[in-house]
Amino acid sequence: TINCDGTGEAPNKEAKLIRNLFCFNYDKSERPVKDHNTAINVTASMHVQNYDVSEEKSTLFLYVWMSFSWKDEFLNWNRAEYGIDKIIVDSSELWRPTFVAFHNLKSGNGDSACANHPCEVKQSGVVMCVPPCQYEALCVSNTANWPFDSLKCTMFLGAWLENFNQINISRMSNISTRDIEVNHAEWKIQSAILLHIFLPDNTSYPSLEYVFTLERHVAIYGAILTPGFCE
């Protein structure tokens, strides 16, 4: 927590900078733009670390690092004055876009999908937050080629409070599964795509649609499909 009640000189230049940025006119409840007609460009990139599948619940559970980046017009400074390129600040001290995974809301953990985390603020005002998050995607199965069946799982992530006049989701947003170290014992992610959409019942609020295609590991059914040889 930033201490704005301190008296006297700050102990070092970083403490002085943080105090000057946050303790006077900064309001984390307001969008950080000097012209209220300006939409904030937010880049939202998902890095899948692990996943699990519940066939009973038709749900794909995703464990990810979400990278959110935007420019805060009130958090910039002269590097020559402080000799500092960036600072680390807890996410609770900053204005942040209110992105929510809509399927998580239905299961009751929409507000707690992402943990509190430190964020990086660069001297230009560019903010990057990379929280660990747990999301849920709803799945539809295709058993036409059983046991080589597949799942198509869909998840929606979108702005909860800010409309498209206030937030623009950058086309630089992406999704990556290359950080997965251990594949699921039974299901393998074959593809993951990201679409920029507006939900039909919420057309003023920008959203992202993630579509995952999973296939069942063939090796699991090798013993079933391959004749045994006893000789």
From TrEMBL:
Which segments constitute the Neurotransmitter-gated ion-channel ligand-binding domain? 16-217
Protein name as annotated: Neurotransmitter-gated ion-channel ligand-binding domain-containing protein
Q: Which InterPro entries does the protein's record reference?
A: Neur_chan_lig-bd, Neur_chan_lig-bd_sf, Neur_channel
Q: Name one GO molecular function term.
A: extracellular ligand-gated monoatomic ion channel activity
GO CC entries = membrane
Determine the domain of life of the protein's source.
Eukaryota
Which Pfam family would be a valid example here? Neur_chan_LBD
Which source organism does the UniProt entry give?
Anopheles maculatus
